[in-house]
Structures are given as C-alpha cells and as structure tokens.
Amino acid sequence: MNSPCYIRLLKYLLPALSLGLFACVVFWPFESSHLSRVKERSALAKNEAKTLRFSSVDKQDRPFVVLSKTGKQISDNEILLQQLEVTLRLEDGGQIKMRGNNGVYNQLSKKMLLSGQVHLKHSNGVEFTTTTATIDLGKGTAESHVPVEGRNQHAQIKAKGFKILEQGQRIVFLGQPELTAHR
Questions:
Q1: Which of 178, 103, 176 is nearest to 142 (CA)?
Q2: Rounded CA gap, 93 and 142, in Å?
Q3: Where are the domains of the chain?
Q4: pLDDT by residue (tens digit) across 96-108?
Q5: Least CB-packed of 11, 88, 100, 173 within 10 Å?
C-alpha cells in the first residue's frame, strides 16, 4: 500500500475507532448496571409469585385449597402469603373458609399462621373474627388464643379464643365465653 492511500485511510479510521472506544467507555457502566438489575429481578422472581393457588389433602384425604394474592419464600420452609383464603372441606360435605390479611405457611409442618383481620366462616352458619389463628392443614384443625367474636343466626359470642376439632365438626370457644341469644 502506498503512503498517500495509507494516510488517507488512517485519517478516517483513527477518528472512527476513537469515537467507538469513547462510546464503549461512556455507555459500559449503564449496560453493566442494567444487567445487574435484570439479575436481581430474576433472583427475586424465583421466590415470589402473584395469584397463588395450592391444593392438597389432609391426613384423612379431605381436600383443602389455599388462595393468595401474593407469596414470597422467606426461608427454606416458609412462605409469606398476603390477602389469603384457606378452604377446608369437611367429611359431611360442608366447608370452613378462613381469610386473613397475612399468613406464613410452613411446608414441613403444614401449619399456617394467619394474622391481621382473620375471618372464619363455617358452612353451618357460624362466623367469627380474630386477629391471629393457626391452621394445621395436615390435621384439618385450627385454633386461636386471642379474643374472638362470632355469631350465627341465633346468637352472638365473645371468647378468649377458639379451637376447631374433630375435622371441623366441633368448635370450642375458650375462656369464659359470653353468649347472647337472639329472639
């Protein structure tokens, strides 16, 4: 290659090369931070979900369903659920529905702690509210040891807690319950 052509080529090639190198230096940090944000989001996405539905059976083969607006794994065995509803099917064909603002489900013990405004509704017409409740999904039982208020079409009740026993067939109110009958 002769010298004038070589100089002419370098006159255009060197500025283009330096402009490309300058662009890499300027834009590389933006690309790197974008990639790290994408990696962080994908790591979170592995442990978070929206609109969850979990179905299984307890020890007596009665089905139960857990629905939740969001869920996030907070440890190896625990899932934090928000705005959730648990439906337990009973042997007689009835059901118990429990709703709570928040819940923590332990996958090993199959127990769920509901908190916030907890509302329970039994298919026999009994409804009550409390601030916390524990559900044992493996056994089909539930209980709370904090004040509870409830009602059905015939009465209202206040108690220091409750236990749902015998696969939902029996509800025991704890403490000295106050029962007010309707006429």
A1: 103
A2: 18
A3: 48-181
A4: 899 999 999 898 9
A5: 11
pTM of the model: 0.69
Written as six digits, the tokens of 122 are: 């039994």
d(CA 91, CA 67): 21
Residue labelled with tokens 């236990």: 163
Q: What is the CATH number of domain 48-181?
A: 2.60.450.10
27: left (phi over 0), alpha (psi -120 to 50) or beta: alpha
Distance, CA of 77 to CA of 126 (rounded, Å): 33
Contact in structure between 105 and 79 (CB atoms under 8 Å):
yes
Largest Cα–Cα distance in the chain?
113
pLDDT of 130 higher than 90: yes
Distance (Å, rounded) from C-alpha 101 to C-alpha 96? 17
List, in sequence order, every residue forming a beta bridge with 96; answer none if it has no partner.
Answer: 88, 122
